[in-house]
Structure formats: structure tokens, C-alpha cells
């Protein structure tokens, strides 16, 4: 029967694609540090390559790259130092505010409709202290193993910076070498077009999501400052990084801001932050993403949601961050290979 032959033909192709995807993820899982470092290097390259090209008009290429990288690192360190100083300067006042805020939350939860038993939060705090005391050895070993993670992060960051230097300096030359050495002559034009489409999509997504995240962070920071919510600057920075996880990152960060507002400023300010969540969500979904990312990423919201969830299942937070750009690049490559020159 014709339909059975067609179904069988598609079935073995899908099985082949599934096996290839599984193999790729298995290899990346074994070399996850290298894979994540190279991904970070590509992100750095997409962000700093235009700046390096601009500086190259007046500076030698190596010096332009050095100025771009070192200047970006200094700006990042200055931002982190500013956040640290803001937290340190408000710490004493915040301690008293949060103690009173926790008491207000407890009183509020004891009223309708929650009607929690008095002292529930105090009991919860005591249970947490008892757990920490009884599991001190296990927590200490976990902290020690966390030092190994810190070493991995430092190593991965060093590899990402090292690779980004070469990508920014001569990325096209590396691509041409790989194309000429790994591909037969007849396939080179098609895959050269696919590679350029992939890089254009990846760079466009990276720059676009930076713009979206920065806009969200500025809006959140300004609103929290106006509402006099404690830790407004660190919460704005949290919103910036959370925006890299589409659909779910920004609401989670604003949920944290709501809890802080409830503890530090009371339920009215917390309600205002909840309104802020709705407003920023609508702005991000209906204005920023279509305006900034539509030219680089043409994915249905359902595809974005499935990609984020699938990526988080496979590789946690890192998978949720890289899922959408990887799917976008794969779609761009598919379109480039199917489109005649």
C-alpha cells in the first residue's frame, strides 16, 4: 500500500535523525565543559566582533581585539562591584526590614483565606536550622565538591576567552579551512551558504536577546527603585540574566522580586510588583521579541516552549539557555540547504 510505504520511508528517516541527535547529545554530554566553553566563545564573538571591527579602523587587529575583551571584562567587573557595594551598604538596614517583613508575612498568612497555624514560619526556620545542624558533614562535602565546580567554571571561562580571541581575529579563515578540508567540492557551496546562515541567525539571536534582557533589566530596576524595593539593583541584574531563558526566566526573577517586596515593603508594594510582572511580560512578548528578534529567529512560540523544556530536561539551566539558539540555527541550516543558490 502506498501510505504504508510512505510511512515506512519517513519512519526510518526519523529514526536516523533521532539516533544522530542522541549521538550528538551523548558526545556533548561527555565533553560538556568543552561544548559550553565553545558556545560561550561564540556568544562573546557575536557580541564583540562588531566592536573589534570598529576599533580595527584606527588600531591594529590584535590591539583592537585586546581592547574589546579587556574593556568588556572591566565593565563586567565594575558592574558586579557596584552590585556588591549596594548590597553591603544596605545590609544592616535590610536585616531589620526582612525580620519585620517575615513577621508581616506570617501575620498575613494567619488570616483568611490561608489560616495557617501561628508560628508556622518560625517552625519552618527551626526545622531548616535543625536540618543544617544534623547534616553538617554532608553539606560540607557538598560545598567541597562545589569548589570543583568553581574550578570547572574558571577553566571553562579561560577556554572561552582563549577561543574567542581566535574567532574574533580570523573566524572566517577557520570556517574556510574546515569547509575545504572536511567537505567534498560539490557540497561546499551549499554548506558554505548554510554556515553563513547559521552564524547570521546565532549572532542575531545573541545580540537581540542582549537587547531584550538589558531593556527588561532597566525597566525592572527603574520600577523597583521608584517603589523603594530593597536590593533593586541586584534584582535588576537577576532579571537581566534570567531573560536569557525565554518564557520562564523573566517571570521567575520577578517572582523573587515580589517576595523581596513583600518582606521588605509589604503587600501593597508586592501587588505593584505583580502588576509589573504582567506589564513586562506583555511588553516582552508582544513588543520586544517581535521587534528585536523576528528578523533573526522565526520560531513559533510553541516551538520555543518545547525547546526550553526539552533543553532543561537534557542539560538543566544550561540546556534551557542554549536550546532556542540551537533550534534556530538548525532551522536556518535546513532552510539554507533546501534553498537553491
| DSSP helix fraction | over 70%
Number of strands: 0
Strand content: under 5%
| Average predicted local confidence, pLDDT | 76
Distance between the termini: 37 Å
Which structural class should the secondary elements be placed in?
mainly alpha
**Helix and strand run:** HHHHHHHHHH
Can you count the helices?
Answer: 10
* Global outline: globular
Q: Low-confidence parts, pLDDT < 50 over ≥5 residues?
A: none
Rounded radius of gyration (Å): 25 Å
The biggest sheet amounts to: none
Write the layout of secondary structure elements.
Elements: H1 2-30, H2 32-55, H3 61-110, H4 120-134, H5 136-182, H6 188-226, H7 232-242, H8 249-265, H9 267-293, H10 301-338
Helix pairs in contact: 1-2, 2-3, 2-5, 2-6, 3-5, 3-8, 5-6, 6-7, 6-9, 6-10, 7-8, 8-9
